[in-house]
Design a protein that fits this description.
Elements lengths: L2 H22 L26 E3 L5 E7 L4 H16 L4 E7 L6 H13 L3 H10 L1 H4 L20 H7 L3 H17 L6 E4 L2 E2 L5 H15 L2
Parallel strand pairs: 2-3
Antiparallel strand pairs: 1-3, 2-4, 4-5
Helix pairs in contact: 1-2, 3-4, 3-6
């Protein structure tokens, strides 16, 4: 399946899921136990955020990402395709957005996996099995029970998922989500610029434009 086909299919599926999610969901207004940034705008990139691609790439995609979000799952192949096509020129920074009930636990799993160097393989597994642990109204499995074969030390990961540092990451990202005004996922910024409109093709084109600008 070529890039154009992936983007077209993803655009149709993800746009529909994004619209439906927006109609069904309003983020809760809860306070988080972190100090607000001193500036009027929270930074899009924090030092703790997971990064894919070359860390010194001239183009940065920031994705506000909810692991339980169906549209985020649908967009994942497009983001990977962009990283592959613009290898060395683009990096992706994930910012956690825990809008759905199972999301916070999934984020704790991802951060515990990152400590063990298993972030990417566990992320792939969580997205692959998302309909089972985040079924949106249907009976759910426990995400921890779906991680066999990832190489993750589950007993260690369960302990480390409760570390204060991981709680601080959740709190900081929740604060930034609120300040930036994120209302749905995935939300993308490319070198600080929001997409002109939501869609896979729009993401690809903005990335291409920024890559071209970086060459001059």
């Amino acid at each position: 399946m070529n890039r154009r086909t992936i983007i077209i299919i993803t655009a149709i599926v993800a746009a529909g899921l994004f619209v439906i999610g927006g109609l069904l969901y309003s983020p809760p207004s809860k306070e988080v136990a972190v100090a607000q940034p001193s500036s009027n705008e929270a930074p899009l990139v924090r030092p703790h955020a997971p990064v894919f691609g070359a860390k010194d790439a001239p183009v940065t995609i920031v994705e506000f990402f909810d692991p339980a979000c169906e549209a985020c799952r649908a967009f994942h192949p497009v983001v990977k395709e962009i990283l592959s096509e613009f290898q060395g020129k683009v990096r992706v920074v994930l910012r956690y957005t825990a809008f759905h009930p199972p999301s916070e636990e999934a984020i704790k799993i991802l951060e515990a996996a990152r400590i063990q160097g298993k972030f990417e393989v566990v992320l792939e597994r969580l997205l692959e099995t998302q309909p089972r642990w985040a079924p949106h109204g249907r009976p759910a499995s426990n995400a921890w029970n779906l991680l066999d074969g990832t190489g993750l030390d589950l007993e260690r990961a369960r302990r480390e998922s409760q570390l204060p540092d991981i709680a601080a990451i959740l709190n900081q990202d929740a604060a930034d989500v609120k300040i930036v005004g994120i209302r749905g996922t995935p939300t993308f910024f490319v070198n600080g610029k929001p997409l002109p409109s939501f869609g896979a093709e729009q993401l690809y084109e903005l990335v291409r434009e920024e890559v071209e600008s970086a060459r001059h």
